[in-house]
Design goal:
four-stranded mixed beta sheet, 3 helices, globular, 20% helix
Length: 133
């Protein structure tokens, strides 16, 4: 068994694809219209069609798909530059903060209300990161 990736549901696939391309700099590997796979392995799926595929019906709700119960985690070699490029265009959860394990991160919401975290790369094997959860 191997975990491949989460696939967040999104309301507007075009808006979300543009967001992840423009704001996070992700490159599209494959675009199937209602499903977009980025080169990093991250993927998004138009929610209504995925509801139909998984449950055999669409749910008649307009609630945001992001429900503050999932964090989409990305790393960037220059967290300060990423913050400067992204922060003016998103609803921030918080600016860059150093976490208990020493990593610097910032968090915000994507267009569907999914929480997104951008952190500096961590070497989880190093002794300095023994407190990493």
């Amino acid at each position: 068994m191997q975990f491949i990736n989460p696939i967040p549901f999104v309301r507007d696939i075009s808006r979300s694809k543009e967001f992840y391309q423009k704001r996070l700099g992700l490159k599209v590997r494959e675009d199937f219209g209602n499903f977009v796979l980025f080169e990093s392995g991250f993927a998004i799926h138009e929610g209504r069609s995925l509801e139909q595929t998984v449950w055999g019906k669409e749910f008649a709700t307009e609630e945001p798909y992001g429900r503050r119960n999932l964090l989409l985690y990305f790393e960037h070699d220059d967290v300060d530059a990423a913050f400067e490029a992204i922060a003016p265009h998103v609803e921030l959860i918080h600016p860059i903060e150093r976490q208990a394990w020493g990593q610097r991160v910032f968090r915000f919401y994507d267009p569907d209300g999914h929480a997104v975290e951008i952190g500096e790369p961590q070497d989880l094997g190093s002794p300095d990161n023994s407190q990493q959860p």
